[in-house]
Amino acid sequence: MKITEIRLHQLLMKMKTPFTTSFGTQQDRFITIVEAIDDSGLSGFGECVSGEDPLYSEEFMDASIIAMKKYFAPLVVQNEIEHPDEVWELFKPFKRNNMAKAAIEGAVWDLHAKQKGMSLSEAIGGKKRQVEVGISLGLEDTDELLLERVQEKVDEGYKRIKVKIKPGRDIDMIRKIRERFGDIPLMADANSAYTLDDIETLKALDAFDLMMIEQPLAAGDLIDHAKLQKEISTPVCLDESIDSYESALGAIELGSCRIINVKVGRVGGLTQSIKIHDLAEKHDIPLWCGGMLEAGVGRLHNIAITTLSNFTLPGDTASSNRYWYEDIITPEVVAEDGIVDVNTSYGIGADVDFHKMNQYLKKTDVITE
Ligand code: OSB
Ligand code: MG
């Protein structure tokens, strides 16, 4: 394929409600949509999931935009690409910056699928035509408010409820959820808010039969998570610590987790996600797809990766209306009773609606060489 132009559409999207984790509160979402255009005028789309500030990981949006403009966009317009799998190799001399790499690679994947007349799911070897979705609920000021949120999402039929925890907002809060909602599929995400000094708290959570505890310890750590997993019965799921195929291999070999949350941006794109998928499947480590407060393009990429066979647990790929009054795609992503139908028509399966996107657009950078 010949890519003649990359456009970086920089958006500021207002979230319906703020989203609070152990590392901070998000109110507006600064998002970059990557558009890759080929010599016939066809466009593929990707989304950069970096946070506005380097709080979840070291990447942040201003830096990702520079990385895309300076390194990754020029590489895809300067080189003839036969297949999107080549993009990771093309980017390899430049270390890390996985979310920037993934955003450009994602646009190339979508373009490739469209050129071949396939859906993105088919292009990556996905077979599922429906995927189960859960929801991630941020910390609320009081447990009562959180219980109301949980009630809403249980009523909407989400297949799994994830709540954020941090020291001081854990055991009592989880106990109240269990007391009110009984045996619902429930998990907790700490976003690395604990250390092994908190082992008694983490052991106490075993009493609540959580599906898993996500990233309790430091981002990047594998050793302490392996020690922790030996001490608790709740499966450890790693998010921040799995930033490459190599770290997934390390986590599996060390026994640092029993479940992996795959985020396409965090691991550097779809090609790397597929490689981690195949590794995890071989080792009976179930996967699910995590979210990064995505707009529609990122959401559709997440749904596509979830159609691979070893994504056996509900992901964070909720409806477009989870965070947005109006998403940038048509049709929007809609979960009914916790199920999203995979649109297998063409590429990511929906159009970027420029009329809708333009209301959020701050700036578009164009890279042609
Ligand atoms: O840890 O999974 C996380 C959002 C931003 C950064 C990190 C995380 C999250 C979420 C929300 O949990 C997932 C979503 O609904 O998109
Ligand atoms: Mg997480």
TrEMBL record:
| The UniProt record lists the keyword Metal-binding | yes
Keyword Coiled coil appears in the UniProt entry: no
What are the Mandelate racemase/muconate lactonizing enzyme C-terminal domain coordinates in residue numbering?
143-235
Question: Which cofactor does the UniProt annotation name?
Answer: a divalent metal cation
Q: Which Pfam families match?
A: MR_MLE_C, MR_MLE_N
Gene3D superfamilies reported in the protein's UniProt record: Enolase-like C-terminal domain, Enolase-like, N-terminal domain
Under InterPro entries, the record lists: Enolase-like_C_sf, Enolase-like_N, Enolase_C-like, Mandelate_racemase_C, Mandelate_racemase_N_dom, MenC, OSBS/NAAAR
Main enzyme class: lyase
User: Which PANTHER family is this protein grouped with?
Assistant: O-SUCCINYLBENZOATE SYNTHASE, O-SUCCINYLBENZOATE SYNTHASE-RELATED
Role: Converts 2-succinyl-6-hydroxy-2,4-cyclohexadiene-1-carboxylate (SHCHC) to 2-succinylbenzoate (OSB).
Indicate what this protein is called per its UniProt record.
o-succinylbenzoate synthase
Organism field = Salinicoccus sesuvii
- Give the gene symbol: menC
